[in-house]
Amino acid sequence: PATAVVPKSHVTRARPAKSIVTKPHSLPRRHINRSPSPKASTFPLKVTAAQATMGNPQHAMKDKGVIDSGCSRHMIGNMSYLSDFEEINGGYVAFGGNPMGGKIFGKGKIRTGKLDFDDVYFVKELKFNLFSISQMCDKKNSVLFTDIECLVLSPEYKLPDEN
């Protein structure tokens, strides 16, 4: 009995489609294998480290914050989270696609066990608390994003040296 060894074929990627000629004497047009680009997530990144332990402990924030790279100022929709509140006529702030999103009624501070936020605007129309990355970085904090979370590091935190 004779045995034959049949080589196995391995496919690592799809073969390009055959070229198509639409006009005589033209260069061949080749199809580009395209894969759909990943859709941008519409889910905001949530704060996991901002829980109010100082100020009003009975009103702990319980992860109700959104780290927002497009937000120029910290803004909050619940005045009870703020300490040192002062009323101001701060005009209006746009959000949610509405140019007249909400009126700025005042500002205050949020003190947590790990992060402190100054000049937090109170906009009662907000459904989420928005924390500005640019304001955090202005205070020398580092903001690191991974696939699943956002970490805000204090200026004192030093990353280990990789050398």
How would you explain this protein's 3D organization?
The protein has a domain at 45-153: Cathepsin D, subunit A, domain 1 (Beta Barrel), CATH 2.40.70. 4% of the residues lie in helices and 29% in strands. It is built from one helix and eleven strands. It has one helix at residues 133-138; strands spanning 45-46, 65-68, 75-76, 83-87, 92-95, 98-103, 106-111, 116-122, 129-132, 142-145, 150-153. The strands form four sheets. A four-stranded mixed beta sheet has the order 3-8-7-4, with no helix packed on it. Strand 5 and strand 6 form a beta hairpin. It holds the Pfam family Pol_BBD. This is Ribonuclease H-like domain-containing protein. InterPro entries: PolX-like_BBD.
Helix/strand-derived class? Answer: mainly beta
- Please identify, by name, the CATH architecture of the domain at 45-153: Beta Barrel
Query: Measured on Cα atoms, how large is the radius of gyration?
Result: 27 Å
Which stretches are low in confidence, meaning pLDDT under 50 for 5 or more residues running? 40-62
The neighbouring-strand order within the major sheet is: 3-8-7-4
Question: How many β-strand stretches?
Answer: 11
Q: What sort of overall outline do the alpha carbons produce when their principal axes are compared? A: flat
Whole-number average pLDDT?
70
- CATH domain topology of the domain at 45-153: Cathepsin D, subunit A, domain 1
What is the ordering of alpha helices and beta strands? EEEEEEEEEHEE
Largest sheet: 4 strands, mixed
Helical proportion, percent range = under 10%
Q: What proportion of the residues form beta strands (DSSP E)?
A: 25-35%
N-to-C CA distance: 63 Å
Tally of helical runs? 1
